Amino acid sequence: MNQIYLPPGNITSLKSHLINLENDKTVKSILFFMADAHQYNEKDLTPILKNTIKPIIGGVFPELIFNGKRKKTGILLIPLQFELNTQIIKLSDSSETVFEQLETIQKNSINPLSSLFVFYDALSKNKTVLTETLFNFFGVNLIYIGGGAGSLNFNSFPCILNNDGLYENAAVIGWANEKIAIGAAHGWESISSPLKVTKTIKNKIVSINWKPAFEAYKEVVEPHSKKTFNEDNFFEIAKSYPLGISKIDAEKVVRDPFKTINDSIHLIDKIHEGEYIEILNGNKESLIESAKTATEQAFSNSKKTEIKTTFCLDCISRALYMDDNFDMELAAVEQKSATIGILSIGEIANSGESVLEIFNKTIVIGIW
Amino acid sequence: MVKYNLQTEMLLELVFSSYNDSNELTILKKSIPLYLRKLNCFSAGVLKYNNLLYEETLLIPYVYKKSKDWEQVKAYFISIPQSAHEPCSEFKLENTIYYAYNLTNYGILILGRKKPFNINLANELKPIINHLGIKLSQAHEKKQREIAEKSLIENEKCLRTLLNTTAASILIYHNNSIIYANNSAEQFTGYNFRELVDLKIYKLIHPDFKTFCNKLNTSYLKENKTLNSELKILKKDKTESWINVNIDLINWKGLDAIIISAFDITQLKLTEQNLINAKEEAEKSERLKTAFLANISHEIRTPMSGILGFTELLKTPHLTSEKREKYIEIIEKSGDRMLNLINNIIDISKIEASLMLTSYSDFNINEQINNLFNFFTVEAENKNLKLIIYKPLPNNLAVVNTDYEKFYAIFTNLIKNSIKYTEEGLIEFGYDVKDDNSSIVFYVKDSGMGIASNRQDAIFERFIQADIEDTNTTQGAGLGLSISKAFVEMLGGEIWVKSVQNVGSTFFFSLPYNNKFIQ
After folding, report:
1. Among residues A274, A252, A259, which one has the least CA distance to residue A192?
2. Which of A366, B59, B153, B383 has its CB surrounded by the most CB atoms within 10 Å?
């Protein structure tokens, strides 16, 4: 991979690099990631994207990773030596409509030894439709890798892109007839017994064990953290105490609480009413250990003899939690090759053993 | 904090996943993805048992439909008996394991996993999936019932529309009563629905067809299956109509009833009768013409032979003047006879071609009767017949406006016939004015052989004389009376005869009397 990082403020340079990639016969398609800060506006960017014939997919993410370092601005172009069958999915559509569109465009994408890149608007309210429909169509045998785009300020804007421009409340997928090696881990451990989610409204948990959600959460977290919640410090404490959805015979799916209003807990991604959850906790070491585990998994799954670059899709909330120590997590990834990637709001990866889910606070490593 | 048993809770959630749904597709679409998520399966397929075959009603994921693995898995589970799926059957394929559970009364659910279920879970799933099958089969049956009911309602509506729009009159008959009548039946019979329902069916049937009512019973129809016949009915206004009726058994709202379907064929019957008449007429006409031709040949040949024969005799040398006179007379009479025949043929041709014209003028009938008397006196005396005339009107009132030529031809023909058919006695002719002065009735009365009553109408028909076996007939082609009849009708009158065999005949003809002096 001859990935290119372009600092902001030079759209001519972006244009010329895309022309070069267009002319490079070894390049079949392009991943295009742009950092939220100092991003180019839609008006300037759309003509450049439209000018490129080779399939482009990607989006605007809170941060980028280039050569093992966090990049809060700029653009990362990752040329791929395999072709992507790309498709924009409008998340305002019903699951039936999305399914019909998949039937039309991806009808030949049936090889189980294949991969699917999935980037979606993290603020969309309809992400469950996306994951369920993708799973109902493609199943689990192929490799999924992707994450949620958007900004940490949680304002909605067109953050998904392809050759035709930028889209809001949408997802972009790219099917490759190539098996990518992936590894995923989160490093969070349970500190509670299972709790039943007794009432939810969209991405908000209203009650746990028939008690106000925040009250039930607080009962576990405060004694463990030896800290007391007040009006201002919810995220400060909660970023160390995510929720894990219990699964039979599978890893817990992590969910990230980020605020509380009227004793409800607001999450980045949804938990279905009736699910069992456990409150999780981790520390610097366990998270770094999970980064190592994910990397090792990916390397062990890969059949490549020489790996020059590792693609890392890490949760922005892990970076926020690790703060200055996040470099150590990236260093743990960069054991054998240079690391490039994105810091996302929610991650998609699959172990091939269970249904497709959006993860939070998880690190995903991909090698191709 | 609730007592933790994730597996139990999860199973409970599966049990209640379709608790409130009663639509087969909704249950499938809601339950199966939930089974996938909760049981951590990578695929799920439902095979529905339908007419001894399994049909794939749902498969997740979509791309799996085209995979060889799925074909293999499906083929395996279909090949083994249903009893093998108790509690569940297993099929291992590479690194995966597939489970098939009975969806009771519905089919089987196949779940694909990367890891095997623990034995407890595998067993505990059995009643839950069995129950899902019951739920699905109930939903399926409900749907089928709804379809059947809807279809029934639509059929009922369809039948009602059909009954109310068909031109056929339809009655439903049960237990000797009419229980339903359609619009056409009401319109055709003149009875409204209520009246028909109260009506005994024999009142509708014409007395000539009463036996038909006996056939209106279910036992008769069961033996004879259906019945089709033509009969007459009596409508409410007592008018009669012909109908073609079809009768069959029908299950009408659960009753063993009879359906009577009828079409009005009165017009058809009339047309049919007209056609029969026309056919008979044509046959008769054909017969008469054939006979006429045969007769006419005779009528021409006889005088012609006379003319030629006696002309030849005239050539005999030293012929006496007496004989010559006699021969010439015979030749003359034969010529007259032929001329008369030719004139008649020309007249009848003109009449048939509507080329015969009339020319009206005033003339005195007393005068004409006198002329006729003078004309026929010699002929009558030659046969020793007495001629009598009757002229009741004074000369000033005996003027009529009509076609003189035709009047004269009619009268001449009638008198000639009378002389021809009368061997002794008298011949009287004249006229009488009707009481209302509207017409004058002329007559010719003789004491001749008379005409048989069954022939009195026929004699005015064309060529009839040739057709009848009349040994008394002497001469003639049978055209005279038909020409006279045609002339009388052209002049606005009528012709008829009164006759008694061996007593005599009187021929009458009327003409309008429009004498201006009468007023």
Report:
1. A252
2. A366
